[in-house]
Amino acid sequence: MDFEDVAGLHDHPAWRLLRADHAPLVLAFCGAVFVDENARGVPEAVLVSRLDDQLYDLNERGAGSFPRPAAAYLTEWTANGWLRKYYPPGEDEAHFDATSALEKAVAWVRGLPARSFIGTESRLNTIVALLRQMAFGTETDPQARIDELSRERDAIDTQIAQLRAGEVDMLSPLALLDRYQQVETTAVELLRDFREVEANLRELDRRLRHDVATAEGGKGDLLATFLMDREAIAESDQGRSFQAFFDYLLSPQRQEELRDLLGQVNLLPQLEGKTNRNLLKIPFAWLEAAENTQNTVRQLTEQLRRFLADRGQDENRRVQDLVRSIQRRIAELVGHKDLPGLELDLPQVELALPMERRLYMPIERVELDSTVEEALDDATELDISELIGGVFVDPEILAMQVMTAVRASPSGQMTLARVLEQHPLTQGLAELLTYFQLARPGLGVVIDPDRTWELVYDRVGSAGRTAATVPRVTFVRNDDGETAAEGE
Amino acid sequence: MSDTLTVPVVNLLKAGVLYQSDAPGVWDQILAHQAAIGDYLAVLGLHLVIDPAEGYAFARQRDPDTRDDGASVPRLVTRHRLSFAVSLMLVLLRGRLADSDATSSDTRLLLSRDDLVDMVRGFLPPRSNEAQLVDQIEIHIKKLCDLKVLRATKQAGWYEVRRHLKTLVDAQVLGDYHDLLATYRDTLDAPKDDV
Questions:
Q1: Contact A444 B80 (CB under 8 A)
Q2: Cβ atoms A285, A34 nearer than 8 A
Q3: Could you tell me what percent of chain A has a pLDDT over 90?
Q4: Edge-to-edge strand list for the sheet holding A413-415
Q5: Kind and range of the H or E element at B100?
Q6: Considering chain A, what is the average pLDDT of its residues?
Q7: Bridge partners (DSSP) listed for residue A79
Q8: Which residues of chain B make contact with A484, given a CB cutoff of 8 A?
Q9: Paired sense of beta strands A413-415 and A465-477, if any
Q10: Is the ipTM of this structure higher than 0.95?
Q11: Residue A341 to residue B171, Cβ atoms within 8 A
Q12: Which of A84, A225, A284, A384 has its CA 20 to 30 A from that of B77?
């Protein structure tokens, strides 16, 4: 790595994190949540409330001054590439996960304090074993392989002979600790690498998208057919290596073996007080992280397929060009009245058969049952037809009255109170409620539930007066829509 | 007509756009009886649009010209003329959807109310009363929710752009609108030249 390479990394998110003013906060908080607890995908509300607690605690202790709200910090950290904010499928709440840059920074900082004991022997053993595997695994000469195997057999024979003679050769506590430490670091490193694997896969996905989006014409088609292979991501080197690991881990036999060995090692008297209880949970943590990554692969593959299946990217590019062109046109026309609108078929079919309307029925006084029943079918629209079913209020007449009043007003606005002064209610609550639904082209209804007033009106069908608390309603003239309404 | 079609057809027509994620059961029925539903809707002069990859389906009015015998059929689906502002928002949202598809791996496009306001603000005539402008845009947002192009999420002030906008406002629609604006501009210029 020469000077330029290092200088280029100066802007790496992990490096920027180390330089940040509030790096201790980020490293401590995110390290605890995402690394120690190995949480992947924390809902925004949960993370905000935890950070809030932490900030409160720090400010109270005077350990630092963190005046901004928790959400603001999270936004900044996301923008800096330390956290990833995303919406999991089917959820409306944003989730956060650490990026591999954050993991690297956390790992680096945690490696800073001097360790009292650094095992070297076990690592040397590992290296020799790995080298032997490689050399042996690629050896083509059968004789060489046989020689190697007989050497191993001789070594095992010697060991058996020694044990028969009563010489039991045990690992010294020191050698044991050395090995334990290596297992611990490798296990944690492996866990950390999952985030990087995920990040790599995302990067791969981004590159593919970019390639497809920028490829021109025939080449694009070619590329698209080539990439239609939905395994594009799973088949990459990164994807395959990960899959092999995942398969290995998923085998119940291996899991059991792994757990038994870990449990056994953890109970060794020689390691008393030096074991890390978290290590016992590591197979689960691996499995969880691997599953997460597996999900990412699946999602990315699925999305990439959708993206490619999208009747070619030509359409997308054309859409983008057209949108830009329309934007330019509209920008030239800003300020003109009567700009034309789109004409669209909206897929909904509204059927209103006249025979479904009920005939006039004399009104009965009904006890008001204020318990609200959940609408069973599409709860999207509140059905108040029951409420006004007995009385027919013609919204057109009301709209006319309001329109006239709004037009007459110099500000183009009119409150419901003023309208009712001119046109008192004659049909009671039903009429009042209809006013709330008057929004139509050319007329906007703004309801401000925070400001209410008392309306007193005559009862319908009996003597006396009733009072209603009504939110402040303002009718607004809507210039853009008005012409469209008149044009019809 | 067998009654297995009742549930999917009525749901399709009532819901407007039916998403797999909203009604998985009905979605499975639609996929299973795709051809039969298509035939049935054809009788009504409608045409079934299914995007299995995106997981949505809706019925569309067929072009009246496509009838062989030349008889005129009134439209079952009303054609809406949208106000300029709502059209503008549709166009801009379609652009945002295309951008997000090309650059991000997230299939869902979520925008906050502020994003939406910022998006259109520059294209609407400036007003001195900012609050009024924002209120106006809110009314447009409500309209878009009624049109099911936007969906209010459980997080207040955040809206999801529904993916069927892709089919609803495709390159054809955009191209036509582009031409319409061009014609409009020309008619604006023309009288001035005459004077």
A1: no
A2: no
A3: 6
A4: A413-415, A465-477, A443-458
A5: helix B84-103
A6: 78
A7: none
A8: 81-84
A9: antiparallel
A10: no
A11: no
A12: A384
